[in-house]
Write a structure and sequence with these properties.
The structure is a single chain. This protein is of the alpha/beta class and about 220 residues long. The protein has a single domain, classed as 3-Layer(aba) Sandwich (Rossmann fold), CATH 3.40.50.1820. It has 5 helices and 8 strands; from the N terminus they run βββαβαβαββαβα. Helix 2 packs across helix 3. The radius of gyration is 16 Å and the shape is globular.
Length: about 220
């Protein structure tokens, strides 16, 4: 289902999909795309694979374009306004699926936005693909980190985000909040030729997080 949602800076372009009835769980995941000013959108192939992986696992999904991208209105706001966009989409998801667990997932810049907002939005699980933990202007140091199931996937040949900076950042997180880190050899930022491996890593990690199947 494609739709326009009233957001804090104008309409937001969104798409929601339901998991198949035979695997569906009481979970909805909101997935955030990479950097708007570098061509990131909800149609990015990594975002699409994250969405597919979660839906195949029984999770309903919502993807959307941050302000200024596609048919979403407004101007790029360096993660501040984008956090408000995410909150608006989460509020819609909770209205449509009351009682469902909220999971957040993001790729690159989308990881920064979801990590930044996981606590305030009361997310119950978090998936971060190639989080830009060093450089590119995103400061992870002051972020309040959640104590929830959390997966970080990082390619060791990432040409945009420094892999070692991400490994060091993960290691610096207190053990009670430290995410599970999956590293993928010979894998670039956009997971060229490794998207099916990404799918497998996500599905393997989340199978232990899922609640019981939804009652028919």
């Amino acid at each position: 289902m494609s739709f326009a949602l009233a957001g804090p800076a104008g309409k937001l372009e969104c798409e929601a999909k339901a998991a198949a009835a035979d695997v569906a769980r009481d979970v909805v995941a909101v997935i955030c795309h990479p950097l708007s000013t570098d061509g990131g959108s909800m149609h990015n192939k990594v975002v699409t694979m994250v969405e597919r992986s979660l839906r195949e696992s029984g999770v309903d999904t919502v993807v959307f374009n941050f302000r200024s991208v596609g048919r979403s209105e407004g101007a790029f706001d360096h993660g501040h306004g984008e956090s408000d966009d995410l909150a608006a989409v989460v509020a819609w998801a909770r209205k449509v699926r009351p009682g469902a667990e909220l999971w957040l997932a993001g790729f690159s810049f989308g990881s920064y936005v979801t990590i930044r907002n996981a606590v305030r939005l009361d997310a119950r699980a978090l998936i971060s693909i190639a989080p830009p933990a060093a450089g590119r202007g995103w400061d992870f140091a002051p972020l309040e980190l959640p104590a929830i199931p959390w997966l970080v996937v990082m390619g060791d040949a990432d040409e945009i985000v420094d892999p070692q900076a991400v490994y060091d950042w993960v290691e610096s997180i207190p053990e009670d909040r430290r995410p599970q880190l999956v590293t993928m050899e010979d894998t670039s930022h956009f997971f060229h030729r490794r998207l099916m491996d990404l799918r497998g890593a996500i599905k393997h990690a989340v199978k232990d997080w899922l609640p019981e199947p939804r009652q028919a």
